[in-house]
Specification:
The longest helix has 51 residues. β4 and β5 form a beta hairpin. It contains 9 helices and 8 strands. It is of the alpha+beta class. The strands form 2 sheets. A 4-stranded antiparallel sheet has the order 1-8-3-6. Strands 2-7-4-5 form a 4-stranded antiparallel sheet, with no helix packed on it.
Length: 317
């Protein structure tokens, strides 16, 4: 990118540029943030990635020394937002070029602006193709693992004549294998959410009796509504939201499954499904957590003034 610039333009950029350093795995900027600068990799390497609709990371490129990144959000006519995230692959040193100076160079170099615009359009097309391919892979992944996991639980239900399978478990399986890195799909949320649903449903069942043997009167309607409302409120208060647990509360409160021993089996079935999800997702490289949700990387820090001075002296020498 900088090979077409004159010496005076390079010096102007160098005068306002900053040396910034990021430790390995540090997040440099996030997708969707306002772009306020461009970067040049001076030392180390960085990974460009985007987040798909499931919350999973899709690696777009890995850039090494002398590569430039982040300039697309600074081009005139663009949204000004980052179209991808950037993370340091190792301890990395970058040259940070402010937005104002970068755009000043572009106004003087229309050829460079056109070249960067074409590059950006090619990146967008490549990302769309990659996302479509990923969607097909997720569909196949969901089909195979949903079939295997629910099939195993159905087999256990037949062998032991117990409800190892129940309707809301299908929704849980969908979350665990299609959106495994979201908080709602974490083992903590799945196990705690269903436990709350079972407890609230059973409490309502004791007040009104099973719907399959009693008339559906106002007592039953009120008890069922309270079981669902309480389940949702407790999941929010305890920070363990898991939408399928709402269906579990209704299944129990309506008396579809009412024996206390079977309610324990329901929670055991959730545990077995979560165990399968941990094994399958981890074996296929999905960052599925062992308990809570996947931690969000922290933003890296600006290099110290001393580091900036040392790098400047080294570059001059």
């Amino acid at each position: 990118m900088f090979s077409d610039l004159e010496a005076s333009e390079l010096r102007a950029l160098a005068d306002v540029a900053q040396i910034v350093q990021f430790p390995a795995s540090a997040l440099i900027f996030r997708e969707g943030e306002a772009g306020d600068c461009a970067y040049v990799v001076v030392r180390g390497s960085v990974q460009v990635f985007a987040t798909d609709r499931n919350g999973d990371e899709v690696v777009l490129a890995q850039l090494k020394e002398l590569s430039h990144v982040g300039e697309q959000s600074l081009l005139p006519g663009r949204s000004g937002r980052r179209n991808a995230s950037l993370r340091a692959c190792e301890d990395t040193t970058l040259l940070r070029i402010p937005k104002a100076e970068f755009q000043k160079v572009l106004t003087q170099r229309h050829t460079l602006k056109d070249l960067l615009s074409q590059t950006g359009q090619q990146q967008v097309r490549a990302n769309m193709i990659r996302t479509a391919r990923l969607a097909r892979m997720w569909a196949l992944f969901m089909f195979i693992n949903g079939f295997i996991s629910i099939g195993i639980l159905c087999g256990l239900a037949m062998v032991f004549q117990t409800p190892f399978i129940f309707p809301s478990l299908g929704a849980t399986a969908f979350l665990l294998f299609f959106t495994p890195t979201t908080p709602a799909a974490s083992p903590r949320n799945a196990l705690c959410g269903h436990a709350i649903g079972i407890a609230c449903g059973y409490a309502a069942l004791q007040d009104a009796g099973p719907a399959i043997v009693t008339a559906l009167g106002w007592t039953r309607v009120l008890a069922t509504a309270i079981s669902l409302a309480t389940t949702g409120a407790l999941m929010i208060l305890l920070n363990v939201p898991h939408p399928p647990a709402g269906a579990t509360a209704l299944i129990v409160s309506l008396g579809v499954i009412s024996r206390p021993a079977y309610l324990v089996v329901l929670e055991v079935a959730v545990g077995l499904l979560v165990g399968q999800a941990i094994i399958i997702n981890r074996l296929t490289g999905v960052r599925y957590p062992f308990w809570a949700s996947v931690p969000t990387p922290e933003i890296g820090a600006l290099a110290s003034r001393g580091a900036l001075q040392r790098f400047t002296r080294h570059s001059v020498d």
